[in-house]
Amino acid sequence: MRLELFINSLYEKVEKKEMSVTSAVNLIAEIIQENYKVFDPKKRESEQQQDFQSNVIFEFLRTGHKIFGPLPEGKDFYTVVCSRIRGIVQTQIKKSADSNKISLVNLHNSKNDFENEQEKYSFILVVDDKLSVPYAPKNSPDFKLKPVSLKEFMNKRSSFKEAKPAVISALRECYDIPDSIVYKLCEKYNIDSNDFFKNIQELKEIQIEKYERHREYCNNRNASFFIHQRYTPGISDYENASDSYKRTMKRRYETSTHQWELKNKKIKNGKFHYTPSNELLSQKLGICIRQISYYIKKTRELAEEEAL
């Protein structure tokens, strides 16, 4: 009761110009923080509760000024504050649910990517598992050559036609290629793995802005897909609905579908690609851009041969 009277008194002070709206909102936010269970009695896990509560209070601080105005008929200011908090709580619950569903979409995509990893990069590992050295001493089965740097490897002749295209492909996929594939690549072609990973890391750092932009757009695409799914009509969704409601839902479905398909198309067409440029690879490896272009073309040919 004392809490109710105090909050109502804040409204009166604002009306009489004895207190600013900002000060009143800050005071109410402090009251909500100290007596949060009064406004939102639902129990949640400790970490989740703390984050959720912080979000509710932050949102109230951001939008609380909107409740200062003429009071609805038959309601006091305390009731208006409670209604506002309940509205914010419901909005936060909905946001959390949406975020969880989008995360599930991302997780599903990640699982699919993981399952297709070996198949996607299989053309890189066309040669036998054991690297043969034809000029090694016959009586030294454990003979090993000293691994060479990536730059040295790309500037010397190789007896494996797929070796250099495979290296170029791995560097172009620097953000996505698994470490296991890189290790196998280094083992097969006698490349220093530390130097290979150093080059991959340097390429990642150079391309970080492009990669972040791509990832952000993918998250937007996934969010659009979730919204599209939400408006996808079920068999009995609109059985008893009015014609105006059906038209509204149909329009939302068509709009959300268009947005999702448009974003998906842009990603597939490489609108937000983050692959290192041929010029950048040329500088890193000390070979000309025409050679890079040739190896990329050769990579596609090897991938097509592997697919047959």
Provide a quick synopsis of the model.
The protein contains 13 helices and no strands.
Description of the molecule:
- By secondary structure, the protein is an all-alpha fold.
- The protein is 68% helix and 0% strand.
- It has helices at residues 2-15, 21-34, 36-39, 46-63, 77-120, 150-154, 163-172, 179-189, 193-206, 208-230, 243-268, 278-285, 289-307.
- It starts with a helix and ends with a helix.
- Mean pLDDT is 76; it is low at 125-141.
Number of helices: 13
* Count of extended strands: 0
Which oligomeric form is depicted? single chain
Secondary-structure element order, N to C: HHHHHHHHHHHHH
Task: Give the integer mean of the pLDDT values.
Answer: 76
What is the CA-CA span between the terminal residues?
78 Å
* Residues in helix, %: 55-70%
Shape: elongated
Rg of Cα set: 30 Å
The unreliable regions are 125-141
Q: What proportion of the residues form beta strands (DSSP E)? A: under 5%
Sheet with the most strands, sense and barrel status:
none
Would you tell me the structural class of the helices and strands? Answer: mainly alpha
Short descriptors:
13 helices, 308 residues, mainly alpha
Secondary-structure map:
Blueprint: H1 2-15, H2 21-34, H3 36-39, H4 46-63, H5 77-120, H6 150-154, H7 163-172, H8 179-189, H9 193-206, H10 208-230, H11 243-268, H12 278-285, H13 289-307
